[in-house]
Amino acid sequence: FHLPAVAPKDCFLSPALMVVDLGRWQSENISGKILTWLQRYRDQPLEEDLWVKSLIMPPWLLSLERFAELDPAWGCVDLGSEELTPQETKSLLKMGLAREDMLRLEMGISSSGRLQPALHICTAGSKLLHFSGSFKPWLPTGRSSPICALPQVQGPYLGWTQSGESELTLHCKLDGQELRVLNCSSLWRAFLTAEQECGLKGYDAGWPDVDK
């Protein structure tokens, strides 16, 4: 067998949100194709690698011959990223991110052109939030948390922000619109009960002795 040619500009499948046509999935035996690629990976000579870094994504991509691209507004990914890429940073600056707002939000741009902490504006209209990256909203950290745009929908009855936390409004207009922002972790906690958040922190670390 041989690996299909993959061009550098080919699409990359994001597992954050997928809509699957189960009928076509079964008729085209996608599960069988994925298992076949995994078996080939298992049986490969030790001195060679069919792919690296991920065991899941390559067989998916090799098995899907046809797919439709969802609008980016469906999923907002990398909300746990510590910084934005240089390309993402340039895009925000072109949209109107001002130095005044960066100072107020304690942001900076590294020598490599990366905005720190990350500012995610896709949360304003996204239907799904994906906290991929090193920052997890249920884990405490001493570093600056990524910042997210406030969703443009009605929030839970207790509001989006945690007790004592304020929403900020950028003075400039990004892409022609005034932007209200808050810590990304607040969006995660907005729909969680205290018990659910405690469970995510881990049994030993978060649950009181009386509940063990």
UniProtKB/TrEMBL annotation:
Highest taxon listed in the record's lineage: Eukaryota
Manganese is among the record's keywords: no
Database matches in Pfam families: Glyco_transf_8 (PF01501)
Record-linked SUPFAM superfamilies: Nucleotide-diphospho-sugar transferases
InterPro entries recorded: Glyco_trans_8, Glycosyltrans_8_dom-fam, Nucleotide-diphossugar_trans
Gene Ontology, cellular component aspect: Golgi apparatus
Single Gene Ontology MF annotation: metal ion binding
The entry's keywords: Glycosyltransferase, Metal-binding, Transferase
Similarity comment text for this entry: Belongs to the glycosyltransferase 8 family.
Protein name, UniProt field: GATL10 protein
Organism annotation: Symbiodinium pilosum
